[in-house]
Amino acid sequence: MRRDARRNVERLATAAGQIFRERGLDAPLEEIAKAAGVSAGTLYNRFGGRDALIDAVMPDVVEAKVREAMVRAEAEADPWDGFTLYLTLLCEMQATDLAVSDAVSRRYADAKRLNEICEAQMDGVRGLIAKAHAAGRLRADFTAEDLPYLLWTTSTVVRATASRAPDAWRRALAFTLDGLRPAAAHPLPAPPLTAEQVHAVMLDLGAKRSGQGR
Amino acid sequence: MRRDARRNVERLATAAGQIFRERGLDAPLEEIAKAAGVSAGTLYNRFGGRDALIDAVMPDVVEAKVREAMVRAEAEADPWDGFTLYLTLLCEMQATDLAVSDAVSRRYADAKRLNEICEAQMDGVRGLIAKAHAAGRLRADFTAEDLPYLLWTTSTVVRATASRAPDAWRRALAFTLDGLRPAAAHPLPAPPLTAEQVHAVMLDLGAKRSGQGR
DNA sequence: CCCTAAGTTGAGGTGGCTATCAACTTAGAA
DNA sequence: TTCTAAGTTGATAGCCACCTCAACTTAGGG
User: Fold this and answer.
1) Which residue from A57, A61, B19, B115 puts its CA 20 to 30 A from B10's CA?
2) What are A9-57's pLDDT values in tens digits?
3) Among candidates A189, A115, A17, which has minimal Cα distance to B174?
């Protein structure tokens, strides 16, 4: 690849990182091209489309953030504290970075690397959940497939309140977490989603234009 | 008004009712005009714009549904049962009628009648909450201003899962409700939104094009 | 320094939606 | 029946976003 082409790839990646973060993964690609100082055509030449751009930009960011959260969560002595800390950190990320919020609550069909990282993350969460279950600190009927409810909720609350009450999600999350302790448990009216359903639903979300996005 | 004009108003209102219900209050107005068998121009002639159309079509529907839910809720002997029944019915409406889902979780600046009805409904909910508080059956720190969190959550879950797991919201709601019992309560990290913040946020949501779209 | 493959550009086609308006049609009173 | 105010229409302009491509520019090897 020629030097100028490589330079443009880098500029585009940087711009995409910034703009995705500010406006979510549905941000107009033209905006990104403009921020990178190139034309939209170049963006398509270099990346081919939105999903490929996402897959070029997001995985590293997401993996780093998610890994750090996991490290901190696993450092907690109490499994419940670990579980809730992880969720809180995840929501914090969602609140400060719309790109992460989208990456974590949707799936983009052609962003393979990103999907793998998200799957890996889910496995990590399964571990946290298992530990909390084993310690009797998390209601037994909560499964990893229920996690998306939390992510969708936070993502919605965050987007709705970001400009007017940026900490509102903490309150909403606290209500939810209080429902996840064993003592709070009452029989649930429906079984959890299957992993396939979760995947399919998240793909649907990623395929829709405009999300809740600007 | 001429007879044909009145007839068109009726056709448009009927079509709007149907299409809003299926696709939400962001449905393309052209679609509605087409379903009514008139041109888009006529829709604008008769109603002037989306908000006016919403305000012409939705208030009666919403009021009827909300009133019935309130009647049934107030018929419950236990205030907690009343409160949760009301929320469940509200969510059921959201699940079966995207228009109601939008009407209840957003505000449209120029839909005055609808806004009044939503405000009135909020007052009813305040009553339910007060009774449940008085009976010690609802955690004391839950306020009417926290209700939107539930509505936003359900609205998101319903839209995401409608086509693949139409009952998923029941499980998500159950987790949430389990967090609202007094026994589940742990200190909350942030104060509730003010009524003004809730209003402003809901207006923002209504003003965005495409919501979770289609 | 020249030449060409690699790369960029920006204009333009596509599509979806909103909103308006001059030209046409029609209800219904006189 | 006639006439006109009321009403409808379809074309159109404006947005915004996606995506493509022929024409142009340039890096960098020979």
Assistant:
1) B115
2) 999 999 999 999 999 999 999 999 999 999 999 999 999 999 999 999 9
3) A189
CATH architecture group of domain A57-207? Orthogonal Bundle (1.10)
Residues of A in contact with B145 (CB under 8 A): none
Q: Which residue has tokens 């995985």?
A: A59
Provide the CATH number for the domain formed by B54-207 in this structure. 1.10.357
Can you give the distance from the CA of residue A45 to the C1' of nucleotide C7 in angstroms?
9
Are the beta carbons of B168 and B157 closer than 8 angstroms?
A: yes
Residue A96, phi-psi category: left (phi > 0), alpha (psi -120 to 50), beta (remainder): alpha
Count other Cβ atoms within 10 Å, centred on residue A137.
Answer: 18
Residue A14 at interface with chain B, using a CB cutoff of 8 Å = no
Interaxial angle between packed helices B147-161 and A195-207, expressed in degrees from 0 to 180 and rounded to the nearest 10: 100
Locate the domains of chain B by residue range: 54-207
Banded pLDDT at B209 (limits 50, 70, 90) = low
> Is A190's CB within 8 Å of B205's CB?
no
Contacting A residues, span 96-155, partner chain B, CB-CB under 8 Å: 139, 142, 146, 149, 152-153, 155
Number of residues that this document lists for chain A: 214
Flag if A176 and B174 touch (Cβ within 8 Å).
no
Query: Do the chains contact at B190 and A170, CB–CB below 8 Å?
Result: yes
**A132-147: per-residue pLDDT in tens?**
999 999 999 999 999 9
